[in-house]
Amino acid sequence: MEKTRIVLLGANGRMGQAIHRLALADAAFEIVALVTRSDPKARVVDQIACYSVKEIAAVPDFDVLIDFSLPEGFDTALQLCADRGRALVSGTTGLSEHQQAAITATAAKIPVLWASNFSLGVAVLEALVARAAAQLPGWNCDIVESHHVHKKDAPSGTALTLGKAAADAGADVHYASVRAGDIVGEHLVQFTSIGERIELVHRATHRDIFARGALHAAQWLKSRAPGQYKIADSLD
Ligand code: NAD
Fold it and tell me: Which residue from 37, 79, 147 has its CB within 8 A of the most atoms of ligand 1, so it is best to mutate?
């Protein structure tokens, strides 16, 4: 089987480092470039060429760019993939409406899979939330998300995705965010009525679940036709 050639944007971040480590240990992947926001500390790491984001046009040919950066880095990722006609997997959260619209427009030319959460458990939680919201009209729906103190956007992208699933099924959704310690990611979706309450909770205890999901998505996406895909599409 041919290796999936990856360019990794956000390579020195928490998620980037996890993806780098897991890809090195898996013969199905070859990272051909590590891209960081500022000038790289070394030009070669683990025999992989390193670039700063301003040098990104020079990266070698690849199958999929995996982007776990910040909204400021996302546009560069989408543009490079459009220019090269290559696939994009992005987990960057906090994107603007304009950036979401750019994904839809660019997906006419290349395959794009953006997800606010690459865990399988959250994909299932989303379906459970939609079902509960549809069957419990008039109940309060509250989403409480908790993350580590370094997380910049709030509510989290995952909370917004879960909230959209509930809202599309008729719920009036309210959000609360907690930033504390080193919490990897917790999402509580609570449906409350007079005298009873349902709590649906997902707890991520290790960020490797997101990294594994992103690599799985990259391998799946590289041979897809242009289009905008969801994590659930890659699970069939
Ligand atoms: P981090 O702060 O540890 O790393 C961010 C990385 O992005 C760094 O390598 C930084 O150099 C790079 N970066 C920042 N601005 C950039 C720019 N303008 N151009 C290029 N690169 C730039 O963050 P993290 O915890 O690794 O998370 C990264 C992103 O992934 C965040 O948006 C986070 O919310 C998201 N995330 C998504 C999932 C998911 O499953 N979808 C899971 C965890 C985190």
Answer: 37
